[in-house]
Structure formats: structure tokens, C-alpha cells
Amino acid sequence: MEKIIVIVGPTASGKTSLSVELALRFNGEIVSADSMQVYRGMDIGTAKVTKSEKKGIKHHLIDIIDPSEEFSLADYLDLINVAVKDILSRNKLPIIVGGTGLYISSFTDNIKLSPSKADNEYRSFLKNYADINGSFELKRLLRAIDLESYEKLKDNDVKRISRALEIYRSEGKTVEEFNRASKQQPQYEFLKLGLTSIDREYLYSRINNRVDIMMQQGFLDEVRSLNNNKLSSTAAQAIGYRQLNNYLAGKISLDEAIEQIKQESRRYAKRQITWFKRDKSIIWHNIDTNNFEEILNSCIKHMEIFLKMCYNKN
Q1: Which long-range contacts (CB under 8 A, 24 or more apart) does 138-146 make?
Q2: SS3 label, residue 93
Q3: Which of 128, 228, 230, 294 lies 20 to 30 Å from 148 when distance is taken between CA atoms?
Q4: How far apart (Å, rounded) are the C-alpha atoms in residues 7 and 130?
Q5: Which long-range contacts (CB under 8 A, 24 or more apart) does 144-151 make?
Q6: Element counts in the chain: helices (H) and strands (E)
Q7: Pairing verdict, β 283-286 and 3-8
Q8: 121-170 pLDDT, tens per residue?
Q9: What is the pTM of this model?
Q10: Other C-beta atoms within 10 Å of 104: how many?
């Protein structure tokens, strides 16, 4: 079975630098697993890897669509499968790098998505039902058809409640039944390396500093340049663009916008950590207790064992 490296972790943990150094040493190419870096022109706000940071390493699934276009998990799975097969066909090592947990787990678990199209009419009905009756009443609709989801989901989690109802309507299965049926035999063997921080405040300070650097690099000008283009519903989810647009519209001050970006980025990092911690196969490296060289050398050793190859330090 062919082997693939996966590097995960929260925003601002150093995934880009690590992945490039590993790609240089192991004849690799990088495949992005970032749901926002697919968009052209959204560079600073998504912390997109720069030409100099790439160090000549080829990167895939970056800058592939316009911000006005929608992009889904199904789109990503189609594209990553093509990219990985292309890399392997040229005897190079695919290194999947990113923080969008759903994209990564769906690929590594070889999820087969339902071929049925989204039922927009039913989705609209559920939204209106929740608006009129409240999210708890929407959740009560699950009780008779998917008790496990009913007991597990929070009362105000309209998005996941609606998804569970949609799955049952289209597939006749509960979420857990659907997930089990969606998993296929693995296509590849994965080594998963993770970056995290024991001291959460250390990670948060890195995030705050990154936002400050983004502003110095011209993030506000980037947002201005996108103002004439309508962002798709998926592109509009990128952190920072809505906040800076609110500043440009005179709704909040620039300082307030920047603080909101930092806060949302910290919250996102917390969600990323929670998501990835569920995967017990990830080998974690702490960025607050180890320097970059220590982490790099540890990852090299894990990869040497995994790939059964000898790394020539010369």
C-alpha cells in the first residue's frame, strides 16, 4: 500500500515551515488541506504560503478557484484524489498539510459521499422551522428517527441537527449508520504528524502576532480589493474578511476589527485542537516545549521508520 504523510495542527502552529523542510528531505510535494486557501486573491488573510516559503516545492490545491465560487467537501475529495495519484505517479511523496479537519479525515478515512444532491427546499424548511419554533423544537424532530444524534447534539446546534435530518430524509439512515456506510477500505497508509501547544496561551500569542503581521502586510488592502467581487458563501467564512469589511463600512473601528479577528482565530484554533485530538493515530509535537529543529528531527525519524528508507544527511 502506498504511503502518505499528513501534517495537522491549529492555525499558527508552524505546519507550513515543517512541511516544506520535510518535502525537501524526502522528495515530496505538498497538498493543501485548507478550505480557504483554494481561493485566488485571498492570500494574506488565509496565511497562504508565499513563493519564497515554498523553497521550490510544488504545492497543490492552492489558488484554484475564484472567491465568487462555492467549494464543497465533495469538490475537495475529487481534487485531492487526482493530486495524490499524480504525485505518486511521478515517484514523489505526497504530504497533506492543513487545518481543515473535515477535509483531512474524509480523505484519510476514504469517505464516499452520498451521490444525492442537496435538497435545498427541505433545507430551507428546516431553517424556517428553527427560526419560528426554536432550535430545540427542531432537535425534537430527531428523537423518533435518530436518538443517538438527538442525545449527542447541543440544543442550539442547528447546522448539525439539520444535517442529521437531511441524511435521514435522503438516505434513510441515522448519522452514525451513514458514516459507517460511507467509510471504504483505505486506499493508502498514513503517517500523521501533529503540531500543538501544551500552553494554550503560547499558541494564542502566536495567533495574535500573526494577525498583527497580516495587517502590516496589507490585509486591509486585500479586503478592499475583494470588495467589488461577491464572495461565495464558503469564501465568506474565512476569518478576517467580514470583520475588516465591517470596519470599511463604518460599523466598527479598526482596533475592534483586529481584536475580533484575533478572537475568532483563537476560537478556531481551539476547535481545530478538539477535532484533531479525537484521532489517536496522530503523533503530536509540542511547539512550546520543543524548538523547530527538535520537532523537525523527530518528524524525520518517524518518517524514516514509516517509509523504511535511510535519510542521507549529506
Answers
A1: 138/162, 138/165, 141/165, 145/174, 146/174, 146/175
A2: strand
A3: 128
A4: 38
A5: 145/174, 146/174, 146/175, 148/174, 148/175, 148/176, 149/174, 149/175, 149/176
A6: 14, 6
A7: unpaired
A8: 898 999 999 999 999 999 999 999 999 999 999 999 898 899 899 989 98
A9: 0.82
A10: 24
